[in-house]
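Customer escalation, tier 2.

The customer says the design service returned an amino acid string that "doesn't look like it belongs to this structure." They asked us to rerun it and document both sides in this ticket. The original structure tokens are below, unchanged.
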């Protein structure tokens, strides 16, 4: 039998630190769990108490705002932050949750206020963002100063954020620079072929990104401005 765990229902995403000593797992029940990992044996043990899981509404876990259905986990520059793309289909509470990481034990906490999350309607005290419905994945550029978010709904989009290196918070760029979609909705730039974005795959050097299209039956190539 397996070891019991808290907050591990319907797991969908995972991230591991470069040292291999901490593993994070996200599940569609609205939780992110933290495990201590033995690099030699590969065994994992969940941190005790509220340090071991964060959730929207789960007993025994620390409460986190905006954590609706984690779809991907991305460690930030220097591994000081963990970014969680959360998706509720077309629900306006889809977006990104920001978590700060304690390097001593890998435990996570959410920054207060708008630095702690961004979603489509600004609910739960989060910052308001555009083109985030159905957020599926997030990529950070090598400098750690920009974040790209791929979202599936309503037709697919890419949102662009500036990242605060001190707080880890995300601020969406204004106007058409802040997002792309097929029809220009929400003031985004228009890319007609952008239909149903799930992933962002950066090329080496980050001069181009490639976006598999679940509704467009293909792959979209985009240039990244310096």
């Amino acid at each position: 039998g397996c070891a019991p765990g808290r907050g591990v229902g319907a797991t969908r995403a995972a991230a591991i630190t470069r040292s291999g000593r901490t593993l994070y797992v996200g599940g569609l029940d609205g939780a992110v769990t933290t495990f201590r990992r033995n690099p030699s044996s590969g065994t994992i043990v969940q941190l005790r108490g509220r340090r071991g899981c964060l959730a929207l509404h789960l007993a025994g876990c620390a409460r986190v705002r905006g954590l609706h259905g984690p779809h991907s986990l991305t460690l930030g520059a220097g591994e000081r932050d963990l970014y969680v793309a959360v998706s509720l289909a077309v629900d306006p509470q889809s977006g990104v949750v920001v978590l700060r990481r304690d390097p001593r034990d890998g435990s996570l906490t959410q920054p207060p206020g708008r630095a702690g999350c961004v979603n489509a309607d600004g609910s739960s005290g989060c910052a308001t963002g555009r083109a985030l419905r159905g957020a599926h994945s997030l990529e950070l550029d090598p400098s750690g100063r920009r974040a790209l978010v791929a979202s599936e709904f309503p037709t697919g989009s890419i949102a662009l954020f500036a990242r605060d290196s001190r707080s880890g918070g995300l601020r969406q760029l204004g106007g058409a620079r802040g997002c792309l979609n097929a029809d220009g909705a929400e003031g985004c730039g228009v890319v007609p072929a952008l239909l149903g974005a799930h992933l962002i795959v950066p090329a080496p050097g980050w001069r181009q990104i490639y976006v598999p299209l679940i509704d467009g039956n293909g792959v979209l190539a985009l240039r990244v401005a310096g």
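Tier 2 assessment: The sequence is consistent with the input. The chain has one domain: 11-223. Residues 85 and 223 are 23 Å apart (CA to CA). Sent an explanation to the customer and offered a walkthrough call.
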